[in-house]
Amino acid sequence: MTTSARLLLAALVATALVASGGAARQVAGVRKDAKGASAGKGGDFGRADEAADRVSRPFKSLDGGWGDSIPWVQTYEEGLKMAAEQGKPLMVIHWSEACPYCIALREAFKNHGEVQKMAAEDFVSVNLQTETLDQNLAPDGRYVPRIMFVDPSMTVRADIGSGYRNSLYAYHSDEVFRLVDAMKKAKVPLKTEL
Rg for the chain (alpha carbons), in Å? Predict the structure, then answer.
């Protein structure tokens, strides 16, 4: 395959990825160099079957494995905006793929019917593998897993925790009832004075 044919194929792959919503992460996968230099030797983007493999890989969705029936938002800022607009609390899940406690909690969360129903119907939800700049989301430190709630009035609900003394906002996979209780408390809006 000629270099120009490979460039055309790469452009088509990138266009297909952009159209399907996987643009930023997957298009970056076509190129290996952060400066935008093409992969391979002499501008060679690789074989056509490699590009086809990139297109056929499943895209990671916003649910991150926490439940695909929940309408997840992409960023904390987007979540704050939607929570205020919809009058629903925001649930912020901080986690990491490298954390075995996070993975266990994710499985328990995904398989718990009441948690899934409340998250889908009563909350704006975001799961983050990076920290936000909002220091209020880490009142007792930055650790994972950590679940915080934000009232539609934009107040972080530091009063709602798991009940553990050493990690107030950590939830464990074998005690999902604590998360259910916290979610029920978070559904009750704060009273705001005028």
Answer: 21
